[in-house]
Amino acid sequence: MKQSLYIRIEAGDPYDTGSLIPLKSEGEVLTFGRSSHTNETDISLLSPYVSRNHAEIFLQDDQPFIRDLDSKHGTELNNVKLEPEVPKKLQSGDVISLAKGVVLLTYLDTEMAETDLTMEFTSPIEPAEKKITNGLHIIPERRQISIDGEPLFLSGKHTDLLVFLYRKKNQAVSSDEIKIQIWPERMVAGSNTLPDVGNDEINALVYRLRKKLGPYGDSIVTVPRYGYMLQIK
């Protein structure tokens, strides 16, 4: 098989952002899961929110498919949660999220593009006159973020928070809403209580996100005694 199919790791310890993982040949499976002494997967991840056997990607009749392996916190394809054990066909540029964005991946078929491999993994190439060069730009459906025309890759929780604030831009969002949206894995099944997340943890996440946004960090405004707001035009 001519190697043209890759997974790029955007976020997922212990891998560096931009790591490229080639897909396996027909009949072989690329597995994703939490590393341990007793469990081996092809892509071994460190997050405790990733299941031991979380998801897999495989080729069937030369077509790539992803399948969630009944993981605890789920797998999403372009922000749509996959049904456990039901294969879903992949298209070049698809964004894969494990455990609600703790791990973020991009699927690429390099034969589908006439561009350099690295560029294909970042953002679509636009004509020079249309290329975005200034400002903070967010495409929530693809969880893509750019600052002054350069792609910004964030960890899962940072992306979750920024996308959530963006969807409610220029509206105050309460701390309780943030807890529910960003830490759903801490909800107790069958309980109406909020996730076990303190305000200090929210404040710390916001602080780190502001730092990562650089000159645009001030766009995240504190709403005293309530929560936060993303203030943009």
UniProtKB/TrEMBL annotation:
Residues 30-82 form the FHA domain. The keyword DNA-binding applies. GO terms for molecular function: DNA binding. SMART domains: FHA, Trans_reg_C. Signal peptide: none annotated. InterPro entries: Cell_Proc_Reg/RNA_Proc, FHA_dom, OmpR/PhoB-type_DNA-bd, Sig_transdc_resp-reg_C-effctor, SMAD_FHA_dom_sf, WH-like_DNA-bd_sf. One of its GO terms (biological process) is phosphorelay signal transduction system. Residues 127-232 form the OmpR/PhoB-type domain. Keywords: DNA-binding, Transcription, Transcription regulation. Residues 127-232 bind DNA. PANTHER family: NUCLEAR INHIBITOR OF PROTEIN PHOSPHATASE-1 (PTHR23308). This is FHA domain-containing protein. It comes from Fictibacillus arsenicus.
